[in-house]
Design brief:
Elements (H helix, E strand, L loop, with lengths): L4 E4 L4 E6 L19 E4 L4 E6 L8 E11 L10 H11 L5 E4 L4 E6 L3 H10 L3 E4 L1
Parallel strand pairs: 1-8
Antiparallel strand pairs: 1-5, 2-4, 2-5, 3-4, 5-7, 6-7
Helix pairs in contact: 1-2
Length: 131
């Protein structure tokens, strides 16, 4: 695996769920939200990843996540980035939640595991920067 530069984004994140039939919460896209926001609809749920302060009302949420973003853009032809990061974090006993965007990959780890995650990624040869 090539050496990656990973940025630890500021702030606390949450992973939340709403009913599959719920409307996408408009406040997530009104232009005032800062940070990563991802909304995915499946047949069984509306899943939201967002800064903890933006969790939609009525959502079941798990808070206390930190966002690590691979500095991109990454070419679509690159393979194994999430596999490598997840293997390195798993070996350190760090659970993760991953997602990808057009330009890059992101990994969320619980705040209590952040130091261990950063140490594992650095040990694997990646550069980790705190923004």
């Amino acid at each position: 695996m090539r050496r990656l530069t990973i940025d630890v984004q500021p702030g606390e994140y949450a992973v939340a769920t709403l009913a599959a039939t719920d409307a996408v919460p408009a406040h997530l896209f009104d232009g005032t939200a800062t940070g990563l926001v991802s909304v995915t609809r499946s047949p069984s749920e509306l899943s939201v990843v967002c800064p903890a302060g933006l969790v939609p009302e009525g959502a079941k949420a798990e808070r206390g996540w930190c966002l690590l973003s691979v500095r991109g853009p990454l070419a679509f032809t690159l393979t194994g980035i999430i596999a490598a990061l997840s293997s390195e974090l798993a070996a350190a006993g760090v659970a993760l939640f991953s997602l990808s965007t057009f330009e890059t990959d992101h990994v969320l780890v619980k705040a209590v595991d952040l130091e261990r995650a950063v140490a594992a990624l650095r040990k694997a040869g990646h550069e980790v920067a705190h923004l």
